[in-house]
């Protein structure tokens, strides 16, 4: 019946989208009750289209999110991304940046296992929406989620990039504790990835930032790097148990507790031959 209301004929010159949309919504609910996900998804897609046609983007976005959730249940991973991106676009049309970002985040969470690369793209786009709207603090968890997936994929440089972006966002919001956690996390990721040189460079860059300068996180990072310079594996393991590290995200704690990674002797020789400006005075 609803299909007929949206098609033109010799006796119907205007499509009755308003009436049809109500019928599609009812159908979607009923199909979901009887657990016919395929037909429920299609009905939500039609209901979303109907709300678009009657200039109701908010309701259209809501129904598109429902279709995306059902696509996940059906294992239609490409449709999951498409539906949540469409919902994001519709929310943006009605000026709701937070809802637009949330839609992408929902899509990302749905795809973390099935398509982690697309999940990261969705998280990144969700963060960008919030940053552009001056809502950086709402993006903190999204940056962490993106970094977590990159670590799972063993793309450590990309994970650091997300952590550093979190640090910048935290700085804008004067969230000093979150900023310091992000910078210490970035240094730990580099150390886990056997890249002492980049860990040192990251520390030196972050050390220029007032909030990080005198923080417990800075002291912890400094001690870690000094222990690496000395080739002291036991000291590294002891520092990894610090409460400062225990209060980081779980994925970072797991990395820290596996330190040291790589050839400590090689790091010690390189650090000795190429002084990087870190000594015991840095610990005070």
Automatic annotation (TrEMBL):
GO terms for cellular component: SNARE complex; vacuolar membrane. GO terms for biological process: intracellular protein transport; vesicle-mediated transport. GO terms for molecular function: soluble NSF attachment protein activity; syntaxin binding. Keywords: ER-Golgi transport, Membrane, Protein transport, Transport. InterPro entries: NSF_attach (IPR000744), TPR-like_helical_dom_sf (IPR011990). It is found in: Membrane. Pfam families: SNAP. The keyword Protein transport applies. It is a peripheral membrane protein. Belongs to the SNAP family. This is Gamma-soluble NSF attachment protein.
């Amino acid at each position: 019946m609803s299909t007929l209301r949206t098609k033109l004929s010799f006796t119907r010159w205007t499509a009755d989208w308003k009436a049809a949309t109500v019928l599609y919504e009812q159908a979607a609910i009923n199909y979901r009750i009887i657990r016919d996900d395929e037909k429920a998804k299609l009905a939500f897609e039609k209901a979303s289209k109907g709300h678009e046609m009657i200039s109701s983007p908010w309701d259209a976005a809501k129904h598109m999110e429902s279709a995306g959730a059902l696509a996940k249940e059906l294992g239609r991973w490409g449709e999951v991304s498409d539906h949540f991106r469409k919902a994001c676009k519709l929310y943006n049309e009605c000026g709701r940046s937070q809802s637009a970002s949330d839609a992408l985040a929902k899509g990302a969470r749905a795809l973390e296992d099935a398509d982690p690369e697309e999940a990261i793209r969705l998280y990144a786009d969700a963060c960008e929406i919030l940053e552009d709207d001056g809502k950086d603090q709402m993006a903190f968890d999204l940056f962490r989620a993106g970094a977590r997936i990159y670590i799972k994929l063993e793309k450590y440089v990309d994970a650091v990039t997300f952590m550093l972006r979190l640090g910048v966002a935290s700085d804008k919001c004067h969230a000093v504790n979150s900023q310091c956690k992000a910078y210490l996390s970035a240094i730990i990721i580099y150390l886990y990835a056997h890249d002492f040189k980049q860990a040192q460079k990251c520390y030196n860059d972050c050390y220029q930032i007032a909030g990080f300068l005198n923080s417990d996180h800075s002291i912890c990072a400094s001690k870690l790097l000094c222990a690496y310079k000395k080739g002291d594996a036991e000291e590294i393991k002891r520092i990894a148990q610090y409460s400062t590290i225990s209060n980081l995200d779980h994925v970072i704690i797991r990395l820290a507790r596996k330190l040291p990674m790589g050839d400590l002797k090689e790091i010690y020789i390189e650090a000795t031959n190429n002084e990087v400006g870190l000594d015991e005075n840095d610990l005070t």
